[in-house]
Design goal:
Elements (H helix, E strand, L loop, with lengths): L1 E10 L3 H12 L4 E4 L6 H5 L2 H19 E2 L2 E2 L7 H15 L5 H7 L2 E3 L3 E5 L2 E4 L2 E10 L3 E3 L27 E5 L3 H12 L3 E5 L10 H13 L3 E3 L4 E7 L2 E6 L4 E4 L1 E4 L3 E3 L13 E2 L2 E2 L12 E3 L10 H17 L11 E4 L4 E6 L2 H8 L3 E7 L4 H5 L8 E7 L2 E9 L2 H14 L3 H5 L10 H16 L2 H13 L2
Parallel strand pairs: 1-2, 1-8, 2-5, 8-20, 10-11, 10-16, 11-12
Antiparallel strand pairs: 3-4, 6-7, 7-8, 9-17, 13-14, 14-15, 18-19, 21-22, 22-25, 23-24, 24-25
Helix pairs in contact: 1-8, 3-4, 3-6
Bound molecules: flavin-adenine dinucleotide and nicotinamide-adenine-dinucleotide (NAD).
Nicotinamide-adenine-dinucleotide binds next to α6 and β21.
């Protein structure tokens, strides 16, 4: 057995692990990075990158089919295999950035093996034992496979296997209407498949219901069947002919099945108990500093059991660098973390939804909004239909949450991420000048709406203006 002593040992070379490793090694720490599967983790290989690449192929097909701005639509020539080639080419283009060669070039020792703890200070990976001052568990998550009768014996796809498909499913059944289910539903519908989404609760159920409805209505208009509050009690059939048996007695048939009902953290095969690391049902139990019950061990990203996004894993990495390298106190916050679902229209959120804010703040809450249909750029580019909007939840002159549904909502929400991180007030936001005509103006419009009643509907303001006007030369 080979033995290595290091400052920092990172387990998992995905979004979080890579960021910690590159930061730590470039600032002078000795780093061992262990990866059991593909460098780059879920986001690059089975998550964000392939899903956004497939959505972009689907959008091309949609634009050609629908036309717009005076240009007639025509039937697109969709080649599913070519769309999947585009997916693989996007992955291949990004892969060098996350590669073993790059990280070895930075000075990391990269070990390609499954890691498990053998003591509170030692991890074994393949034929190497690594003793480290600090460990970082960045092992991510995998698709949760629900214990539904018959599912195990039926062929199904997950976010890991979907990208190897070479022909479009004739009728794709999707179990779960979360971000994965809804993004893949729209992508496949636009690429020519029949699609049925079945959710045990509400599709996009974590989002503001009014905003979620805008997305669901669009998908339904495009021909996606979305069935909600419909628990599946049994799955039957085989390759090319699959049945979902619903609790209410209905049976749905399709040719392929994608399971997307949430995630389970990759913490079950770490032998965490040998290092006295407590786990919860969601992952490693961590405190606000992302530290586990073993003070030498931290957890970040999906393995830490909180918000499951690439930018969260990256943010966690930044928080940890302070603690790992400088021994400084560091805490992970969440009020400034946005999220977006990349359907068309996109759905983005930061902080509290309206109902969460109402519950937390009651009458102290003011909600302002602006409609995408009133945005000149959206109108000029033919993207104003569909009921998109921005809603800002405000308490004591500061936003506590923002919901945006509409074109490029995922881009527009970054502005509010800066607002939240900097603690800006609505007055400062209303004072911003955005170039005309941009979608960005909708953010300013929502801020302006906060002041409209105070300025345009106030008898006091009217009296003061009349008085001043009388005395102005
Ligand atoms: C279909 C899909 C679409 C998504 N789209 C988005 C999106 O658009 N935007 C967004 O922000 N997020 C998105 N996500 C979520 C995002 O992919 C994850 O939140 C992110 O990858 C988490 O990063 P991580 O570093 O925690 O884990 P990962 O990136 O999954 O990396 C963990 C790594 O650890 C390795 N590993 C696990 N166990 C061990 C072990 N014992 N020893 C050694 N190595 C191990 C794994 O092989 C893996 O490479 C999506 C997810 C999916 C599934
Ligand atoms: N755009 C993005 O940023 C993006 C995209 C995809 C995934 N992700 C991340 O990955 C995570 C996982 O995504 P997801 O969509 O798998 O999970 P999810 O937990 O967000 O949604 C799962 C959905 O499945 C439903 N469900 C649960 N059990 C079910 C069952 N037995 N039968 C039918 N429906 C059931 C739930 O009601 C829910 O609507 C997301 O929460 C997000 O953090 C992010």
């Amino acid at each position: 057995m080979k033995k290595i002593k290091t400052d920092v040992c990172v387990i998992g070379a995905g979004s979080g692990g890579l960021s910690v490793a590159s930061g730590a090694v470039q600032m002078g720490a000795k780093v061992v990075l262990i990866e059991a599967g593909e460098m780059g983790g879920d986001c690059l290989n089975y998550g964000c990158v392939p899903s956004k690449a497939l959505l972009s192929a689907a959008k091309q097909a949609h634009v050609i089919r629908e036309g717009g701005a005076g240009i007639a639509g025509v039937t697109p020539q969709v080649d599913y295999a070519a769309a999947m080639d585009h997916v693989q080419s996007a992955i291949a283009t990004i892969a060098p950035h996350d590669s073993q060669e790059r990280f070895e070039g930075l000075g990391c020792t990269v070990i390609r093996a499954h890691a498990r703890f053998i003591s509170p200070r030692t991890v074994q990976a393949g034929d190497t034992e690594i003793t480290a001052r600090r460990f970082v568990i960045a092992t991510g998550s995998r698709a949760f496979i629900p214990p539904i009768d018959g599912l195990k014996n039926t062929p199904f796809l997950t976010n890991e296997t979907l990208w190897a498909q070479r022909s479009a499913p004739k009728h794709l059944l999707i179990l779960g209407g979360g971000p994965i289910g809804m993004e893949m539903a729209q992508a496949h519908r636009r690429l020519g498949s029949d699609v049925t989404v079945v959710d045990a609760g509400k599709a996009l159920g974590r989002d503001d219901p009014e905003a979620a409805e805008v997305v669901k209505a669009t998908l339904r208009n495009e021909g996606v069947s979305i069935i909600e509050d419909a628990p599946v009690i049994r799955v039957s059939g085989g390759a090319g002919d699959i049945q979902l048996h619903l609790k209410d007695g209905q049976t749905l048939s399709g040719t392929d099945l994608l399971v997307a009902v949430g995630r389970v953290a990759n913490t079950d095969s770490l032998d965490a108990e040998k290092a006295r690391i407590d786990l919860t049902s969601k992952g490693v139990k961590v405190d606000a500093a992302l530290r586990s019950s073993n003070r030498r061990v931290y957890a970040i990203g999906d393995a830490a059991g909180g918000m499951q996004f690439t930018h969260v894993a990256g943010y966690h990495a930044g928080v940890l660098i302070r603690a790992l390298l400088f021994g400084l106190p560091a805490k992970a916050a969440s009020h400034h973390i946005p999220r977006a679902t990349y359907t068309d229209p996109e759905l983005a959120q930061i902080g509290m939804t309206e109902s969460e804010a109402r519950e937390a703040h009651g009458n102290a809450l003011t909600v302002t909004r602006a409609e995408i249909s009133g945005n000149d750029r959206a109108i000029a580019t033919g993207r104003s239909a569909g009921g998109g909007f921005i809603k800002v939840m405000i308490v004591k002159k500061r936003p506590v949450g923002v919901t945006i549904v509409g074109p490029d909502a995922g881009e527009l929400i970054s502005f509010w991420a800066l607002v939240a991180a900097s603690g800006l007030k609505m007055g400062q936001i209303a004072g911003m000048v955005a170039p005309y005509p941009t979608l960005m103006e909708v953010n300013k419009r929502a801020a302006g709406a906060y002041f409209t009643p105070k300025l345009f509907e106030s008898p006091r303001v009217k009296t003061v203006v009349k008085l001043v006007q009388r005395f102005l030369p």
